[in-house]
Fold these 4 entries.
Entry 1:
Amino acid sequence: MDKSSLEAHVEPEKVRQWIAEIGSDTSAAVPILQAIQGEYGYLPREAMDLVVANTEINASQLYGVATFYAQFRLNPVGRHLIKICHGTACHVQGADRLNTSLRHILGIDDPERDTAINGSYTMENVACIGCCSLAPVMVVDGETFPNLKGADAQRALRNHARVHNEILPGQQSDEEARA
Ligand code: FES
C-alpha cells in the first residue's frame, strides 16, 4: 500500500458548503480547517486548494494557520494513534529510543512520515501527559503504557496489534528476514 492509498477522497461540494456556512475571509481559516479535519482526519491537499480557490484566504495564510496550530495534520492518519510523550521526564528516560523502536516495528523509514504504510498506526510526539513518575510513556488510542524501557514498547504494540487484528509492517519484514 503506498502513501496515496491513505489519502482521503475529497468531495468539493462539501468543502464549498463549509465555506458558505463559515465565511470566506481570513478569520474563517481556523473553523474551515477544523471542519475539513473533522471530516477527513487531516487536511487533504485537494481540500486546501479548494479553500484557497474559493475564499479570500491565500495559500501562505492557510498553510501558515495549518502549521501554527498543533491540532492540525497535513498527512493522513492511521486507524490507531500512538502518542509518545516527550516531556522532560520522558525525554530523560529515553523517549527518543521509544520513537526509534516504534518506527522500526512499524516499518516507517522515511523521517518525513509518521504513519505506517498499511495505515495501521500513526505516531505523534506530544508534550507531558501528566504521569511523569511512569516515564517513559506512550498512549495508544487513549490507553496509557508506562515504563517503556528496552523492548517494552515493541512488545506492547505487538499485543495491541494482535488484539485489533492489525499487521505491523516492520515486524513482518523482521520475520521475513528470519525465514
Ligand atoms: S514527561 Fe512524560 S508524562 Fe510527564
Entry 2:
Amino acid sequence: MQVVFLGGASGVGASCLAIELAGQWFVVDAGVRVDKKADPLPDLALLEGKDVRAIFVTHAHADHIGALPLVHQAFPTAPIYASRATGLLMEVMLSDALKIMNKRAMEEMELPLYPEGLVAGMLNHVRPLTIGEGLTFPELPGVTVQASRAGHIAGAVSLGFSASDGSLVVSGDISITPQRTVQGALAPPITRPDLLILESTYGTRLHPNRQAEELRLAQAVAEGIDRGGHTLIPLCGESARRTCCCPKHFLPPCNGRSAGATRPLPAGP
Ligand SMILES: [Zn+2]
C-alpha cells in the first residue's frame, strides 16, 4: 500500500490523494485552493507515470472537486465514482466554477483552469457509488470499497478501501452533528484500518453551539422585519443556501416571524 498526498495535507484546499492498493493506483478527490494568492491546484505532477484506474469523490465542495476535470483529462478512461447527491451537486458546483473563471478571465485576464467542454466530458464519466455496501469494481480487482455517510453536506461520504495488502479509511470532511438538511456522520466503514486519513480542519478551534447561532440569526432577521426592513443573507455554500432558503428547513420562528417571509435571491455572479 502506498499513499501520496498531492494537496490538502498541511493546509485547507486542493485535497487530493493518490493511493496504491493491490498493485493498482486510484485517486480520491482533486480540489482547488480558493486563496487567490496560492497556486490553486494540487501537485498533479505526482500522478506522472502512475496508471490511475479510478477516481473516487468524497463530496462536492470545490476544495475536493475543483481540479477533477484536469485529473480526468490526464486519465480519460478512469471512471469517477461518487454518491448520487454528490454527482448532482458536482454539476452545480462546477458550473458555478466555470462562471467565476470566465468572469475573472474577462475582468482580470486570469486564465481559466479548464474549458467548459472538459467539465461536460468529465461529468459523463461519473458513476454512482452506493452508500453502505461493500463494492468491487472491474477497474480495481482485489479491492473492496465501502462508503459511509459523513454528514457535512448532502452526499458526503467517508471511504474505506481494503485489499490483501492493507486497508485504509479516508474520512473526507466529516460532521457528527446533525444539521437541518443533512444527518450526522456514521462510524467509518472499516473499524480497524491499517491507516486512517482523518479530516482535521478547525480541529483545534472551539465551536459555537449550532442552535444558539441559529437563534441569534433568527432574532436578527426578526428585528429587521419588525423595523419594516428586509434582510439579505449572503450564503456562499450550497448547503448553507438550502438550510436558510428552504422554507421547510428554515431557521426557528422568532417573534412570530418564520419562513413565509423569506425567499431566495439568485446566486451570483
Ligand atoms: Zn467540505
Entry 3:
Amino acid sequence: MGTSFTSKSISVSALALTLWLSPANTHAQLSDEARFDMLSGRVELADGDEDWPLVLETIIELNDIERDEPLPPMLSFFEGKALLRAGQAYAALAPLADYIERAGSEGEVYHKALAFYDEADRDPATRQHRAEEAVEQQAVIDRRNAELNQLPDFETLAETGTPVGSSFHDCEDCPEMVVLPAGEFSMGSRRSEYGRDSDEGPVRTVPLASSFAVGKYEISVGEFERFVDDARYRMSEGCQTWADNVWTDERSVTWQDPGHIQTANHPVTCVSWDDAQAYVDWLSGHTGERYRLLSEAEWEYAARAGSDHAWSGNNDWDCQLGNVADDAFSDEVGSDNEDRAECDDDHYSPAPVGSFAPNAFGLFDLHGNVWEWTLDCWANDYRRAPDNGGARRNGDCTRRVQRGGSWLDTPQVSRSANRSSIGLTTKASSIGIRIAREIDENIVE
Ligand SMILES: [Ca+2]
Ligand SMILES: [Ca+2]
Ligand SMILES: [Ca+2]
C-alpha cells in the first residue's frame, strides 16, 4: 500500500461503510485489495454517534484481507474506539496501544487515543478480566508446583527398576530431568532433506554408551532466577533483540526484561554461553550431581528421540510441533517469510515451556521456542568430530553450537539436524538453555 494516511484522509463514514457492505453494491465485486484501497482512501468518520458495531464489523473484515503491509494506524484507533463503545473495554486496549505506538506524531487523535486507552484501562470489565487472568496463571503455577512436588529424587527412581523415560529432580526447586536410554543413532541429514546445509554431514553413526538425563524443558526464567539470587550472579549488560525485522543490541535489555512478554514459566533468554555454564556449575554445586550442557550429539539424539525424520517423528511441519515463525508471528511483526509455518501456533514470541507436544522421549520444545546452547566448539562439518557422542573441543572454540531454532526462525531452522553457531559471549532474546545430568548407575530398560 503506497498511500500515506492522515487522520483526515482515513476517516471512515458510516454511510460509505453501509454502501460497501451492501450485497447489491457493485464495489463488492472488486478485489479485496481494491476494496481496501477504496475504503481507506475516501471515507470520513466523525467522532459523533457512528454505527460502531458496523465500523467494527468492517475493520474485522479488513483485518482478514491478506496484504503485504499492516493496516494504517488510524484503523487501529477506530477499532479501539469501536470496541470501547461496544462495551469491550479489555479488547480495546491492544488496538489503542497499537495506534499510540505507531501514531508517528502527538496530534489531537493521539491524545484522544491516550484518553480512550485510559478509559478502557480503568473499566471494571478490564479489571475483572485481569483478575481472571491472574487466577488462571496462578492455577498453572500451582499445578506445576504440585507436579514437581510429586517427583521422586533419582535414588528413589532407580530403586523402582525401570527409570528410562521417567522424570526426577534432585531438589525441590531443581529442574525436572528425564532419563534417556543409552543407544546409537544416525547423526546429520541426507542431501534430500529440505532446508539442509552442508555442515550437517557427513552422516555418521554415533554411540552413546551410557544413560544420561536431559532437562524435560528449556530452563525457565523462574529456575534461572533461583540461581541468580542464590549465587548473587552478575550478568554483563545488553542483549540482542529482534524488533522491526532487525536485530538491535540494547544495554537495557536483560534476561528479566528481554523485550517480549514473559512469566516465571517462560524459557530464560538473553543468557550467554558463559552464563549457561555458570548456571550448570551452580546447579552441580547445589545438588552434588554432575550437571552440564548437552554435547551436540546428545542434543540431536534427544531431539530425534529415535526418529530419522526432519523433526522428531515428522517430515512435514505442523503447528503442534513447536513454536516457530508462523502466521501469528508474521501478523505481529509484519514479515512475510515464505518459509514460515503456514499455520497458527498461537505464539509470536516465546511460549511458556511445555506448551507444545512432547517428543517420544517425553522432552518438550527441542524444535523451536528458544535456541539451546551446547558444549561443542564450532566446525563446518563432522569430519573431525568425536565418535563417542562427547563434545567437540577442536574447531573454533570462541563460537559454540546452538541447536533447535526459535520462535522467530522457520521450521527448517528447527530441524533435528540443523546446526548454527554463535559467539560465546553473545546474548539474544532467542537463545536459552537446556541441561544434561550425568548418571553413574548403569540403567537397564
Ligand atoms: Ca510462533
Ligand atoms: Ca528449544
Ligand atoms: Ca545450519
Entry 4:
Amino acid sequence: MLVFVAMGRRDLAVTPDINREHQGQLTNPPRVDTQVYLSRKFVILHNQAPVEMVFKSQSFRELEANMVADQRFILGVDLDGVVADFYGYMREVTAEWKGVPIEELTEEVSFGLPEWGLVKDEYGRLHRFAVTQRKLFGAMRPIEGAPQALRRLSAEGVRIRIITHRLFISYFHQTAVSQTVEWLEDHAVQYWDLCFMEDKTAVEAQLYIEDSEKNVERIRSKGDQVIIFTNSTNRNLPDHPGGRADDWSEAERMIRDRYYEWRRDKGLALPAGPGLAALEK
Ligand SMILES: [Mg+2]
C-alpha cells in the first residue's frame, strides 16, 4: 500500500515503508483506498478520524516512477467552481453577511466578488466566515451532473485525482479535510486521490479541469492540458489551447475524447461504452 503526502510546494512523501515504520503508532490501520496529500502535514483518514504522522518525503516524479506498473490516465479535478457550486453557496452566505435579499446579488461575478459590494479585504473575512461558521466545504451543492460524470469516467478507467487548495485557514485543517471527504462521499463523487495543495501542476495529470484563471494559466504555462470549466470568473480566458466546457455533459464528452485518444495511442482497448469498463484483449 502507498500513502502519499505533500510537505510543501514540491515535496510529496511517501513510501510503502512509512506504514511499516509507523504502524505501531496507529490504533487502526489506515484506509487503503484513498490517498491524501496535504500541504503541511500528513493525515490518514480512517473512520473520519484523522491521524497525524511523521514521514520522510520523496519527489512526486520518483513516486510516480514507482507506480508505473499501474499506469493510468490521471484526470486532475478542481473542486470549488467545478464539482462544488462554490459561487452559488457563497451568494447565499453573502446575502446573510450583508443583510440583503439574495436577488440583489448578481450571479455574474468575477474573482474576489467585487460585484457584491465587498469593501477592501472583506472577501477574506467573508470567505473565512463561510468556511468556519457556515460549513462551506460540507454545505455546497454539487454542480449539476458532476458526480454522475465522474462516476462514469472512473468506471471507464480514468483515475480521478481531486486537487484543491482548501487549507488556507491555519489550525482549521482537520475540519477542512473532514468536511471535504464527507462531502465527496455524501455525494458519491468517485475519486482515487485527494490532494490539498495550491500548485496543482505539482501532482501531475494527463488532463486537468479547472475554473480559476490563475490555475488555468499556470497549468498551460507548464505545457499541460487543461479544460476550462466555464463560469463568470473565467470568461475572459482564451478557450485554447485545451478548450472550454460550459457544463458537465460537455466536460464529460471532452474528457472521454482525450482519454480514448490516450488509450488508442497506447494500443489499449476502448471502454465498451459510457460508464463501462474496457474489455480485456
Ligand atoms: Mg476552482
